[in-house]
Amino acid sequence: MIRLETDVLVIGAGGAGIYAAIAAARDGCSVQLIDRSLIGRGGATVMAQMTVSVALGAQCPDHWEHHLADTLAAGRGLCDPALSQLLCENAAPRIREMDAWKVGWAREDGHIKQVHAPGHDRPRCVYVDFLNTGPAVSRTLRAQLNRIPAIRRIGDVLITDIVVHEGEAVGAVGLHLVSGETVALEAKSIVIATGGLTRLYRRNSGSLNMGGDGYALALRAGAELVDMEFVQFFPIGHLAPRMIGMDPIMWDPFRYKLGGRLLNAAGEEFADRYGQAESGNYVLTRDVATYAIYKEVEAGRGSPAGGAYLSFAHVPEAELRKAFGPVIDRLAKNNIDLTKMPVEVAPIAHYHMGGVRANAAMETRVPNLYAAGEAVGGANGANRLSGNGITEAFVFGERAGTTAAARAKARAASGWNDAAAARALELIGKRSQAAAAPNTAALLIELQALMSDCVGPFRTEDKLQQALTKLQQMQRELGPLPAAATQYDMVCLDWFDLRNMLLVAQCVVRAAIARKESRGAHQREDFPGMLPEWNLNQRLSWREGELSLERVPAVQPAAKVA
Fold first, then answer.
1. What is d(CA 509, CA 471) in angstroms, rounded to the nearest whole number?
2. Three-class SS of residue 8?
3. CATH number for position 511
4. Region label for 300, one of left (φ > 0), alpha (ψ between -120 and 50) or beta (otherwise)
5. N-terminal to C-terminal alpha carbon distance within the chain
6. Are residues 136 and 30 in the same domain?
7. Which of 347, 376, 396 is the last residue of a domain?
8. C-alpha torsion sign, points 114, 557, 15, 495
9. Domain shared by 255 and 225, yes or no
10. 557 inside domain
């Protein structure tokens, strides 16, 4: 067994995790930054290719309170105001810090350029260049890591459990994927920064390590989850033809800047069938676009890949190149010519508003355990405002790292206890002796299909109950022990992934069944309309091997934001 000790352990090395590690190290702590993939190359941040919201006021008057007002409006009354304010008020310092680190924000007339994204009341979003913001951000953060010797970077380690002793988090246990060895990590404070849960769905815009690991780790450690029913779907995610090295949600700026006709298999525009004719403007709201595409596919009028066509054939090539010249060239390398062919698009899982319940210091209810980035629930309520994703990673990552460092410096030792870690260590060390091991690869595919078909953008009681029953059956099929672990044993890895994914999926389904209304990203076809009596946040706990759900009134802002 490999044993490691540190002041601050950061689990997850995307944007939030790296920022947390940097913040903790500059406050004088030793840091171990752990990820199941390559450091700084997994998660959502590196894949994000669009814009970042921040009230800089660089090109037009703005204030963080205006950004907050838009964030709260998008959240449909369920935002945690303290988290939302932290996000908006601290965005500018983080963006300027990244600017000092030479991330390369686009500039115009000597100022950082800001563009107008959906849901904002003015131009407020910065970017590096179209389709390159996330990679540039990740590259800049990795460069900062290289300058800080106090941060030890360890990839290829899957954290399986947080170790809790006498009610406090004291470290973690993991599996080294290269060697198959067990890893015990003692830490004075721990930050969970593992991102969201989009891998639960067949079609998604996230990386393969976004299976909700952090939610499951926090839940089993004793923390609460909140707002788990709110999964955001992007309506026009790319389906076909195959496109390599480009963001599947890239069509949004094309559509709202140049227009784009949504067509069914017969080549017909169909938005007017669902209550909102486009009238040549091609600016359908995301919820209507998602609903319209789903219904066309259900009616048998979908494209071959199971979505709709998005066509720009009516836009002259000169206009396409003027707006998105470098992108047009990259599309050409994928054999996509927008002047001659449509692409196929469909709703895909994109982001999760729910997550670990934390306060504005990023503290969970488990002492020494913190959360950051998309792992945190509450800041975005029922629906995330466009551009808040990377902002959240920066702001919450920095705050979590700072708070975790202060806690670590106040403690003489981690409090690690071998007996408390024994169960988690045994789980990795023991191996199933079942004669017929489950086909974990098939179970993963089955889970993704189930969530997509029954717990997608539009839900009903019957489908949700069907999903819950099936998830419980799959849990039994998985069994209590993993298969044998050797170097890069994918069956063992799949078992641990399914252990987390099945638990997190049940959290989403149980919360979705309980919320009998439609609000934000949670749409119930059998309960249409947003109801004031459901101005409630739903919290989930794990007690003696069972999920427990509690409803609490949503905290409202103290005063209306100007």
1. 9
2. strand
3. 1.20.58.100
4. left
5. 57
6. yes
7. 347
8. negative
9. no
10. no
Question: Could you give the percent of the chain with pLDDT greater than 90?
Answer: 66
Total number of domains constituting the chain = 3
Mean pLDDT of 247-275: 83
Range of the domain at 261: 236-347
Q: Does residue 326 form part of some domain?
A: yes
| Segments of 208-342 assigned E as strands | 225-226, 231-240, 261-263, 308-311
What gap in Å lies between CA 557 and CA 393, rounded to an integer? 23
Q: Are residues 208 and 268 in the same domain?
A: no
Asked whether residue 64 is domain-assigned, the answer is no
User: Is residue 148 domain-shared with residue 37, that is, in the same domain?
Assistant: yes
Helix (H) / strand (E) element for 173: namely strand 168-176
Q: What is the pLDDT of residues 69-87, one digit of tens each?
A: 999 999 999 999 999 999 9
pLDDT digits (tens, 9 = 90+) for 452-476: 999 999 999 999 999 999 999 999 9
Average pLDDT, whole number, for the chain?
90
Query: CB neighbours of 240 closer than 8 A, spacing ≥ 6?
Result: 303, 304, 305, 343, 344
- Same domain for 290 and 438: no
Q: pLDDT tens digit string along 479-530?
A: 888 876 666 678 888 999 999 999 999 999 999 999 999 999 999 999 999 9
Same domain, 218 and 267: no
Asked whether residue 192 is domain-assigned, the answer is yes
Contacts of 370 (CB under 8 A, 6+ apart): 20, 189, 190, 191, 192, 358, 361, 362, 363, 364, 400, 403, 404
User: For the residues of 39-70, what is the DSSP string, one character each?
Assistant: TTTSTTGGG--S-EE----SSS---HHHHHHH
Residue the block writes with tokens 């049940």: 506
274 Cβ contact list (under 8 Å, min separation 6): 288, 291, 292, 295
Residue 164 pLDDT grade (very low, low, confident, very high; cuts 50, 70, 90): very high
